Amino acid sequence: MNFRHIQSPIWTVLTVFIVFCALISSIGCTRKAQEPENKTTLTKVEEKKHWTCPMHPHVHSNEPGKCPICGMPLVLVDKEIRKDKSEPSRDETSGLEASAVQFRNANITRHIVAKKDFVLTLALSGRLVSSREVAFQIYESDIPLIKPGLEITGYASSNPGILIKGKVVGLDNLVDPSSRTLRGTAILNAPLVGFVAETSFHGKIQNTLKNQLVIPEEAVLHTGTRDLVYVFSQNSKLNPREVVLGHKSNFEYQVLSGLKEGDTISGGANFLIDSEAKIRGQ
Predict the structure, then answer these.
(1) Domains of the chain, start order
(2) Is 174 helix (H, G, I), strand (E, B) or coil?
(3) What is the DSSP letter of 73?
(4) Beta carbons within 8 Å of 203's beta carbon, 6+ residues apart
(5) CA–CA separation, 259 vs 253, rounded Å?
(6) pLDDT score at 103
């Protein structure tokens, strides 16, 4: 008997069967790879909480307490870390959020930016050139603020107990290149009693600037290279904004740019807000 002819059909069948199984398996894998994912990808948010010191951000604690360095109460940092693939919008993540109780405990207040008449007070120094005439110096940056007719008040070093008043009558048109000041002249309302020629004069002058954008000094955070305020957004989150300030008078600043009328800004201990924002990486 020829075993060679008997085995040939069997091997043929086995070979066909193996190829068929491999083909079915590959088709199944291809379909599985091509099938869309029916499950909705959910955003996973992890909450990371700890307490830290606003003045010493490197201090971390798992529970409330006081800073071991300065004794200041620790503040809660509640930071959400998103694990989904899509990037959240800036409106969702930017800004510092705190409750009304936290603001109250930190002595943080709200202030609505408005326009008002800004009463500006400038210091003057000079000398008495007669019993009724005062020559004073003003910085070139203050030249637009001084004009004839404004009232001055002050005293003479030779008789500091007597308040003297007068009005500006003129300004020079040449700035001193060494001191960067301009000479002005004022006439006193009455002759100075006990006049001593060339005695020093120390005083002030006031000017009212109409319809100026003004904010309280406590709302400004000076960083050394720029001036910041924290502005409340529509969702009550706080965001820093750079401003350009003008003159300061009576604990208020004139705002030249960076804010508009109706903006709501924070006042009080803004250094705490800034420290918290830096802790949260905002």
Answers:
(1) 45-88 (no CATH), 109-117+211-279 (2.40.420.20), 118-208 (2.40.30.170)
(2) coil
(3) B
(4) 123, 124, 125, 136, 152, 153, 154, 155, 164
(5) 12
(6) 64
Whole-number CA gyration radius for the chain: 38
Long-range contacts, 217-226 (Cβ 8 Å, 24+): 217/248, 217/251, 217/252, 217/253, 218/251, 218/267, 218/268, 218/270, 219/111, 219/265, 219/266, 219/267, 219/270, 220/245, 220/253, 220/270, 221/270, 221/271, 221/274
**138 in Cβ contact with 122 (< 8 Å):** yes
Cβ–Cβ contacts within 10 Å for residue 168, how many? 22
pLDDT at 270: 55
Q: Which pLDDT tens digit goes with each residue over 11-51?
A: 454 454 454 455 445 444 444 444 444 444 444 444 457 77
Tens-place pLDDT, residues 168-191? 999 999 999 999 999 999 999 999
pTM, to two decimals:
0.56
Task: Identify the helix (H) or strand (E) that includes residue 275.
Answer: helix 270-279
Which tokens belong to 261?
A: 């009328």
Task: Show the DSSP H helices in 94-215 as ranges.
Answer: 100-105
